[in-house]
């Protein structure tokens, strides 16, 4: 195992698993997967951007595993592929290459790949073990951990899916070096989210280390990713299936974010960019409801802007955004549910917000 590796345990009793975080870990993937999900047949699911860059290195890391057969399946990169049509093609390809109940799925890619590969694993022959090897910052700190997998419907993000925990998560921070700037910054939106919802000290740390973060300093990256994974692991262990409201805090900004993504057909914003805008909308809504001081929104806005994330929602159809919000999984009887801050480091789940009230938060007066 490479030096300077951090390990975070997701302590889910019989579904417990480790997240390994460090530089150069892709070279150890065969050993890692062999330990947490030994098999004779692995299906690597990746996309057209990530596969050409990292699939060979991943396959080479399995060279020492005797008799292990690897197949690599790839789909077109991008959120627009996260649909049931692409999923059906994956299921059919898995059948063609002879995947069966003894196969292990490996997700190699960003959030879309993790969600697609995880859902393929959750559903093919009623469930296969899988391992997450995320390759984007957003996937490192959020989507690869916690077992949410699935696809979008045209009218709603992540509307069809499952809770299906991986057997392990391997995060190689070196893979972030070649991530396009826009995607890297989008991942930082989820990093900021953890500070706002759970950890004021972490938020303050981020405010003080924007330069090394943007420079992708390996030590800072390992520390930041480890802290996010640790916070997420605690939340997932407390409320794995989002039943008690504990896990719901991870959705801070996401009701606004998902409406933005839906109305713009998943093409205009990267998820993290929509999260950046969504957090500021949620914070403005909290201000309007008298739950939080303006300074709390300003601190988030300043940090997100320093990172280079969008902070102003462009002009879009307000009624279409409201209609999209009403289709959110958290909506109950026409009333919206939001995760709203009370200060930096703490949020509450707030029920019964009227759509008209929420609508005012898109654009500050
Ligand atoms: N990304 C939110 C969650 O995992 O619950």
Assign the CATH class of the largest domain.
Mainly Alpha
Order of helical and strand elements: EEHEHEHEHEHEEEHHHHHHHHEEH
Classify the oligomer: single chain
Strand content: 15-25%
Shape: globular
Overall average residue pLDDT:
95
* Major β-sheet annotation: 7 strands, mixed
Structural class: alpha/beta
Whole-number count of domains: 2
What are the salient characteristics of this protein?
seven-stranded mixed beta sheet; Dehydroquinate synthase-like, alpha domain; alpha/beta; 44% helix; 11 strands; two-stranded antiparallel sheet; 365 residues
Task: Provide structural commentary.
It is a single chain. With 365 residues, the protein is of the alpha/beta class. The protein folds into two domains: 6-178, Rossmann fold; 181-360, Dehydroquinate synthase-like, alpha domain (Up-down Bundle), CATH 1.20.1090.10. Helices cover 44% and strands 20% of the residues. It has 14 helices and eleven strands. The strands form three sheets. It has a seven-stranded mixed β-sheet, with helices on both faces. A hairpin with a 2-residue loop joins β7 and β8. The chain starts with 5 loop residues before the first strand and ends in a 6-residue tail after the last helix. The mean pLDDT is 95. The structure holds glycine (GLY). Glycine is lined by residues 142, 146, 148, 247, 250.
């Amino acid at each position: 195992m490479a030096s300077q590796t951090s390990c975070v345990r997701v302590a889910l009793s019989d579904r417990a698993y480790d997240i390994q975080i460090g530089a150069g870990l892709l070279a150890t993937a065969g050993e890692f997967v062999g330990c947490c999900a030994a098999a004779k047949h692995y299906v690597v699911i990746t996309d057209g951007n990530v596969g050409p860059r990292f699939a060979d290195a991943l396959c080479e890391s399995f060279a020492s595993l005797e008799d292990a057969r690897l197949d690599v399946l790839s789909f077109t990169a991008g959120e627009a592929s996260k649909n049931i049509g692409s999923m059906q093609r994956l299921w059919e390809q898995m059948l063609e290459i002879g995947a069966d109940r003894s196969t292990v799925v490996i997700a190699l890619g960003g959030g879309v790949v993790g969600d697609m590969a995880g859902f393929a694993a959750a559903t093919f022959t009623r469930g296969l073990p899988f391992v997450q090897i995320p390759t984007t910052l957003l996937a490192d700190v959020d989507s690869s951990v916690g077992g949410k997998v699935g696809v979008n419907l045209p009218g709603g993000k992540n509307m069809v899916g499952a809770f299906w925990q991986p057997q392990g998560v391997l995060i190689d921070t070196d893979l972030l070096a070649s991530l396009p700037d826009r995607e890297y910054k989008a991942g930082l939106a989820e990093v900021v989210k953890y500070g706002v919802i759970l950890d004021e000290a972490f938020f303050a740390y981020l405010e003080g280390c924007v330069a090394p973060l943007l420079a992708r300093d390996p030590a800072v990256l390992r520390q930041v990713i480890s802290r996010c994974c640790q916070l997420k692991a605690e939340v997932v262990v407390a409320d794995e299936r989002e039943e008690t409201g504990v896990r719901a805090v991870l959705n801070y900004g996401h009701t606004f974010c998902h409406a933005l993504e839906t109305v713009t057909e998943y093409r205009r914003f990267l998820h993290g960019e929509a999260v950046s805008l969504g957090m500021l909308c949620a914070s403005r809504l909290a201000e309007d409801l008298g739950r939080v001081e303006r300074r709390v929104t300003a601190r988030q806005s300043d940090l997100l802007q320093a990172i280079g994330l969008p902070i102003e929602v462009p002009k879009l159809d307000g009624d279409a955004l409201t209609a999209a919000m009403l289709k959110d999984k958290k909506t109950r009887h026409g009333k919206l549910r939001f995760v709203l801050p009370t200060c930096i480091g703490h949020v509450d789940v707030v029920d019964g917000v009227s759509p008209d009230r929420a609508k005012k938060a898109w654009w500050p007066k």
